[in-house]
Amino acid sequence: MLGPVILAASRSDRMRRLVSAAPVTKPVVDRFIPGETVDQIVPIVRELTDQGLELTMDVVGEDITTPAQAEAARDAYLELIDRLKPLELGTRAEMSVKLSMFGQALDGGHELALGNVRPVVEAAAEIGTTVTLDAEDHTTLDSMFAIHEELRKDFPQTGCVIQAYLFRTEADARRLADSGSRVRLVKGAYKEPAEVAYQQRHEIDKAYVRILRTLMEGEGYPMIGSHDPRLISIGQELARTAGRKLDEYEFQMLYGIRGDEHLRLAAEGHRMRVYTAYGTDWYGYFMRRLAEKPANLRFFARSMVSKG
């Protein structure tokens, strides 16, 4: 029940100031966000890929209010891609982008976001990798899917994210599976109204399994975004039933959560991709990680008590 409260706090400037000022915050944030700059994150990329893991990189940032900020977000990704080029990792290190960072919510935001994300997709393709468009709240999804479809005309490996808790997602999954898209399936991490989304965990889990079956039986490339051991096992079984080889789907988990499981899946031959965020504007990302899983909140609370 705390999840919606935490998600509401993620939009509060007052809570942002309180959490940011707390002495214990930085060491806890470091668990989920291992760096603020490209110089800090490149060694992390080397470390994880040396362990047989793959990455999807997110330059954190939200609440873009000007076109100049959107262009700065674009340039941050271009800098990251330029720094990854000498590592020659190809698709072992891809990008995840939120179109809100590229100006989607501004006047003329759809075209602005498309214009800003296209150079990132082009630059990623030049170093042999790709970009996945992250899903945000339900009001942005029609724009996101339209941009995804447009980008795939020239860059067919461009991926997108769908969220199991939304009622619309089963239909979206069927369309994307038929088109051969790369699709990351997650449960969902935004506060959505009951008119558009399941509210109970068991309903979300059941929807997740139905949608994952659609993706596994389709023509695309499923990316299983979950830390839930039961859903991971179900995903493996669905892949076997669909006759998929180990390189025809992958698992994705967040940096800082279930690290031992990352290594176990990779050791078994699975493609295991770690969602790795970095940057200075970490607050919204951090609060959603707390909201997603009670263990994350307990970890933060224990740290506050022990450090206080």
Care to describe what's here?
The chain is α/β, with parallel strands linked by helices. Helix content is 52%, strand content 13%. It has helices spanning 2-9, 13-21, 25-32, 38-50, 67-84, 109-126, 141-152, 169-179, 201-217, 229-241, 259-267, 283-292, 294-307; strands at 54-59, 93-97, 131-133, 159-163, 182-186, 221-225, 250-254, 272-278. It starts with a helix and ends with a helix. The model is unreliable at 303-308 (pLDDT under 50). Keywords: FAD, Flavoprotein, Nucleotide-binding, Oxidoreductase, Proline metabolism.
Quick structural overview:
Keywords: FAD, Flavoprotein, Nucleotide-binding, Oxidoreductase, Proline metabolism. The chain is α/β, with parallel strands linked by helices and 308 residues long.
Low-confidence stretches: 303-308
Number of helices: 13
Amount of beta strand: 5-15%
Do you know the CATH architecture of the largest domain? Alpha-Beta Barrel
- Major beta-sheet overview: 8 strands, parallel, barrel
The best one-word shape is globular
Q: Rg, please?
A: 18 Å
Determine the structural class based on helices, strands and strand pairing.
Answer: alpha/beta
